[in-house]
Each structure stands twice: as C-alpha cells, then as structure tokens.
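Inverse folding, one chain.
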C-alpha cells in the first residue's frame, strides 16, 4: 500500500491524495487550489492525477477545495464511481453548478475587457462546464455513515461523521495488503466538539495509517462561549454608529453557523434591532439542503426542528436573490448585518458590499474563516491600509480560481477605514499568526512546483493605522473555500 499526496501537502486547498493498493487505485478528494490567480491557474489546469488509472474516488465533503476539481476529473475521462455521503452529494449539486456558472461569468468579463482594451494576454476559458458537473453528479454513489461498502477490489470503505460541515466524513479504508488487511484513516477536514448545529466528530479505532489535516495544528482555539459575547458587542457598537456589519461567509456551514448565532442573540435580546440580510443565492440554496438533512444535526438543533422552529429563520432575516435588491442594500443608510459570499472575498456579491463600506468608519467587517494567501480577505485580515477594489473600468473584477488574467489587469485601491475589523479566524495576534504560518509553509513548499507558491512581503498589523482594530477570537476558523 502506497499513498501519494498530490495536493494540500505543505500548503492549504487543492486536496488530492492517491491510495495505491495491490489491486486498486483510489483517489481521496479532488479539490481546487486557491491562491494567486496565476498559480491557481497553473495548478488547477493540471490535475496531477491520471484519470485512467483510478478505480474509485472517495469524497470527504463538499467544500470546493476538496470537491471542486471533480468535474475536471470527469472531463479528463474518469468514468468510475465517486463515493460520498447523501448530504455531500446534495450539496455538490448546488456548489459545483455555482462554481461552473461563476467561472463562465468571470471568463466573459475578462475576455470582454481584453477585447475592449486590446490587452496582449490569452483569453480565459473556464476549467469546466455545467455539463461536466452533471456528469460528475451522475457518477456519485451515496453511502450512509457507518455502513461498510466495498468500493474497489481489496478496499472497503466506512464513513464516520467528521463534524466539519453537513455530510462531512472521515473515511476509514480497510485495504488488503498481501496477507494482511491494513486500516487507513483519512480525516478530510475535522470539526470541533461542541459546535452548534452538527454532531461532534467521531473517533475512529484500529487505524494503522492516519492522513489528517493540520491547518490549525499549531494553535489553540478560543472558547466557543466567547463567540456570542464578541459578536453581540460588534453589532451593538455598529448600530450605535449607524453603520453596517459586513460578514464575508463561506456559503457552506459558516453562513449557517453565523445565522444560528444571530438567532441566539436575538432570542436573548442581546442584538440591537438590525435587519439581517443573507445576500448570497448559493447560501440560500445550501440552507435549503440543510433543512433536508436533520439526521446530521446535534440534539439542540433537532429539538428546534421538533418544535417547528428552524435554526436558520428569525424575525428581520431576509434572503436576497435579486441583484437590484442587493445593490439597494449598499444605498440604504439604515444599520444592517449583511452576510455574503464568498468567504475569502474573491468573488460574489460581498466584493461589492466591501467596496461600498470599507471607506466609512461607521462600519465593521467581521472575518469569520480562514483566508488563503494573496486573497482579498487575507489582505483585509492583515490590516493592509489599502486593498484592491476595482478593475480599470471601475467595476469589481471577478477573481475565480480559473481567472488569472484579472491579476494582470489594472486595479484601483481603496483605503480600509472601517472602525472595527473583527478577525475570528486566528489567535489574538491574527496578522502575525497568519504570516508566521505562511513563512513555514512557503519554506517547505518552495521545492514543489505543483503546490508551492511564492510569498509576497506583508506589512505588519500596525500599518493599518486609520482603522480602530478590535481583535476578538469568536470561534474556530472554517477551513473551507466557499462560493
């Protein structure tokens, strides 16, 4: 038995791991890499996996850095089964389709800009089309938790609950190796005990080989109980200033966790009378998928449902689907909370909301998840005094993993003047924590052309002198890319 770590080795995102057994070859996860546009293009255009040699694929969960390259694999000729949990299959149906649509829209935007400006750069093509997504979904086989399944000759799979996102699974693989059977445990991304909505992660037994995520293995998470207190304080202060609170959220899991936290605050009268807007069509679709899978909930969330009280609904909560309504939120002077994708501020409607709010000291930004290197969210979390805001024509440039041309197009910058920047994705010294970890990862990854990328020098946190920065560790970070 051999294991090849193709992606997410000495870096984050782009998970791909190949298990080579005596009789079978199995791919564990098939995710997209995210970082600088040019590096992302190079990595994502080359899967690093020969589709023809695979007998099966195992998918741990639906986040794009673990599932986003499955349509590429199918496009490259893979025709075998893709094993995952029922909830993950349902989530992939909306997330992969959304990823295809975003890539197509980004390609159209950039190609029009190339034609208009006469730029000497290659036209952009999407990594995959909606037809590739449909084929990948057709090859998915749903396997419930705790039910052993023979997925390939000499390999048996059992899923355990990973507690990370809806449907996330620890893959326990019993592999025939000569006269012996060895147990390989692949965790995917792990959740944290005591988190709301989902059950706690299960603990596998009998493992002889363990492949485990280690993104946050070098830090202690803040107490979970601190989340509501800190979030309540941010909301109260922003309301007193008459400002907005912008929360870039990953559409899967993190958005639902924040909604549940806001519901608790409103029920305990610890939240000012602010309207809450979920301005992400994908988040609304994913929340609907959550409602279809109460079997994944913990006891508290199930109790709410039993009383006909959804964890994701409360007074003054509005789901925004219309683009014009989304624009009207920025024009309104009323205090409000806006949850919008994407979580790393690389695409989606949150880019427009940030552009409209970052220069006013009445507003607050709450960073609630991990921010990959070179992303807009990362620049905000590092307290850069100025952040990119638009392309040369004045509109926000899309920044999907397939859109490298946008990195070379002229950009404008905007001063970061929000009064509060609340970083929940790291320890109290968020900027130094981010940068110290990147230095370690970059040193070890520089020799890898597939996963390594160069790191630019980042200014220390003190350079963002115009903003009154308040750091509070509200909760554990999300390890995911969202839509």
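Residues assigned per position:
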């Amino acid at each position: 038995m051999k294991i090849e770590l193709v992606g997410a080795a000495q870096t984050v995102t782009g998970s791909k791991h190949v298990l080579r057994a005596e009789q079978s070859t199995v791919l564990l996860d098939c995710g997209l890499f995210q970082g600088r546009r040019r590096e992302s293009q190079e990595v994502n255009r080359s899967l690093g996996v020969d589709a023809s040699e695979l007998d099966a694929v195992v998918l741990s969960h639906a986040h794009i850095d673990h599932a986003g390259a499955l349509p590429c694999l199918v496009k490259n000729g893979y025709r075998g089964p893709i094993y995952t949990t029922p909830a993950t299959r349902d989530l992939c149906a909306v997330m992969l389709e959304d990823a295809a649509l975003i890539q197509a829209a980004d390609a159209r935007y950039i190609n029009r800009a190339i034609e208009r400006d006469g730029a000497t750069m290659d036209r952009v093509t999407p990594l995959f089309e909606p037809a590739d997504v449909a084929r990948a979904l057709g090859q998915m086989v749903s396997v419930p938790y705790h039910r052993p399944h023979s997925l390939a000759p000499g390999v048996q799979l059992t899923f355990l609950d990973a507690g990370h996102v809806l449907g996330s699974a620890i893959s326990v693989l019993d592999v025939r190796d000569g006269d012996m059977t060895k147990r390989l445990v692949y965790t995917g991304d792990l959740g944290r005990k005591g988190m709301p909505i989902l059950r706690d992660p299960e603990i596998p037994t009998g493992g002889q080989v363990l492949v485990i995520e280690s993104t946050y293995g070098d830090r202690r998470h803040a107490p979970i109980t601190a989340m509501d207190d800190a979030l309540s304080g941010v909301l109260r202060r922003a309301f007193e200033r008459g400002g907005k609170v912008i929360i870039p959220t990953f559409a899967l899991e993190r958005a639902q966790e924040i909604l549940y936290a806001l519901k608790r605050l409103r029920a305990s009268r610890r939240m000012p009378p602010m309207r809450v807007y979920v301005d992400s069509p994908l988040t609304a679709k994913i929340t609907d998928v959550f409602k279809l899978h109460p079997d994944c909930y913990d006891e508290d969330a199930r109790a709410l449902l039993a009383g006909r009280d959804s964890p994701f609904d409360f007074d003054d909560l509005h789901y925004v689907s219309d683009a014009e309504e989304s624009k009207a939120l920025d024009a309104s002077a009323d205090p409000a909370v806006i949850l919008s994708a994407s979580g790393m501020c690389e695409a989606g409607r949150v880019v427009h909301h940030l552009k409209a709010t970052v220069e006013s000291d009445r507003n607050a930004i709450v960073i609630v998840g991990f921010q990959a290197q070179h992303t807009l969210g990362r620049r905000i979390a590092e307290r850069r005094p100025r952040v990119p805001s638009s392309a040369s024509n004045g509109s926000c440039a899309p920044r999907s993993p397939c859109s490298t041309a946008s990195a070379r197009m002229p950009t404008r910058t905007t001063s970061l003047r929000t009064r509060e920047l609340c970083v929940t994705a790291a320890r109290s010294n968020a900027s130094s924590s981010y940068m110290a970890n990147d230095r370690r990862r970059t040193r070890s990854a520089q020799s890898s052309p597939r996963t390594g990328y160069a790191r630019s020098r980042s200014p220390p946190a003190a350079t963002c002198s115009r903003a009154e920065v308040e750091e509070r560790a509200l909760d554990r970070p999300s390890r995911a890319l969202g839509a």
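The radius of gyration is 22 Å. The first helix runs from residue 37 to 45.
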